[in-house]
Write a structure and sequence with these properties.
This protein is α/β, with parallel strands linked by helices. The protein has helices at residues 55-61, 64-69, 90-100, 124-143, 160-174, 197-204, 292-295, 333-349, and strands spanning 10-11, 34-35, 78-84, 107-112, 148-154, 179-182, 184-187, 208-212, 227-228, 235-236, 244-250, 264-265, 267-268, 272-273, 277-283, 298-301, 304-307, 314-317, 327-331, 370-371, 418-420, 423-426. The model is unreliable at 1-30, 354-412 and 424-434 (pLDDT under 50).
Amino acid sequence: MVRCPSPWQARYGGIAVLAAVVIVAACGSAPAPLPAPQAPPARPRCGGPVLALGAPQLQRAYQVTAMLAAGTDGRGTTIADIVPWASLWITRDLAVYSRRYHLPAPRLTIINWDHARPATPGNPEAASWAGEGLADLEMMHALAPAATLIYLETPDTGTPGVWYTQALTWLTAHDPPDVASYSSGLPENPAILGSRAGLQAAAHAGITVVASTGDTGATQPEPGGKFLYPYPVTLWPASDPLVIAVGGTRLHVDRAGNLTGPDTAFSDVGGWAGGAGRSGLFTRPAWQDRVRAVVGGRRGIADIAMDASNCSPAAVFEQPLIPGSGWGTAQGTSISAPLFAALAADAASSPGTGSASSARPCTPCTAQRTGSPTSPPAPTPSPAWQGSPPDRDTTCPPGWEPWVMPASSPPRWPAPADQRHGERHRMEAPPWPA
């Protein structure tokens, strides 16, 4: 029996269903459960050797090498990564990655917001989040090596407002970045409309927010992660018109990172595929009018796609939270979002381009800072809608498309599960590109 879903929080894991698979089931029907993949395929169908892509290969694949030579390297910009749990090894591990690829020393600001507890090896969930945050920082540093990175550690309360509203609102007010990146999100549900204050504040401040679309194609895992919802599910904040939704592709490159062919859609055996779909909450923004034939009257995702494939994984370094960890690989839209966040910072650092959103000037270069707010501000309460939410969001800044609640029959809403996009795996004998 398909449960009429209720709100709960979701994390983008490294699991996916082929994007071509669209299963529609009415609430109350009883389709056969569709298992959710639990790990990347041991033998992905790649048609050749699978090489871990280091920073030089990623730079060459995305034509960043020439930009870096010209001084367009993220200098003067700030990229924020907002992740639950604190990690005691972030600085050291990021430095190892940087030295391996002869990158400039990372300019890292670590902010422990509202007393986030440290992740420990004895807590696999916390360790996984710490690894996620580290992989994010490494991807950002690879393509924008001179940008200042903010690692905002938040408490793992299980409440989406902490990450997407309170933490982002606080950061916007106290240390506004040029770009903020999320490798996590929630299945769309009307309840999340009360958690948009952070995105609205960021939009008003000219902050570009990017978010990964997930790794399960047209749907997402149900609570517990063992089965997929038997109907299309789109993830927020990627589905929000105030956010750039970053999906996944496969890079076709040689050992040096030179393109050997155009990027292709990220999909693989075992149900891995880049998240995509049409929003049930948000109408089509004006800037998607050119693709109305595809998205209809709804907000469609993804907006852009970056490397996420098991066949073109990124090399990452992390230890010692996950037993046996060290050098390994990462894949999924968890790495797509921070890769694009880095390109946005590069664009903002280019002379004459302004900030990543062209809404405010580039921030000046600042010294590395590590700190912790001693008394975080009181959380801004989310609006408590009585009956139906208002027809449109009157706080959207000029140039942003306000959301309008659907006028058609209400869609099925999944229960939110905390989902993190992407997986990381140890390499016994890393096939490093030359």
